[in-house]
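pasting for ref
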Amino acid sequence: MWEQIKEDLRVVFERDPAVRSVWEIVFAYPGFHAVLFHRSAHWLWTHGLTTLARIISHWARFWTGIEIHPGARIGRRLFIDHGMGVVIGETAEVGDDVTLYQGVSLAGTSIEKGKRHPTIEDWVLIGAGAAVLGPITIGRHSRIGAGSVVVNSVPAHATVVGIPGRVVKGGGLHSPSGKPIVDLDHADLPDPLARVLSPLLDHIEKLEHRLEEVASRQGSLENRFAEGDEELQRVRVLLKNGAPG
């Protein structure tokens, strides 16, 4: 237990550049507190003391704003950054070295008993406000973009964005230890909406050019018809007045 606590302290230093000291984590990091409370509640849950486990979970939610059901299985070195609004359901399974930002939901989509929450494998990052729903699996080293709603399983080394979540990138690089070589940020996440809209905008621009060409040709034809009308009027005048012999 003490070794896990030391790991949980270490991981905050590794993934949060804002931290200044161990005491700051101990007294002012709700993500650390929530994980600590959960480990105690989960032990009670697995030993049949479910009501006491729920009470501890409830108080942890009150103090941290993070709700982790005592039945959820949490791996080592889970880092919950900021954390307000995070919800992890009863049958959720979270692997090692996972990072969750505020507002993340690992929720179910069914009221049936049994497995109904997601499985998050090792080294997954889930961005702020993302929802992972149902008994699906998020493969190791994957990243879920902020605000995404994921309802289907995701392969390893994938990047998912959008509603519903779609895989937009794969094949990430990682060191032998398993840690991603690149920093875990959202700056390089592709924009699927821009990918769809860009060719449409190009097509619209081409259509506008063609319309301008058609309008130009139409104007030229109207001028020609106008000139033809003037010539026709002159011919009519000549015929009416009698053409010179």
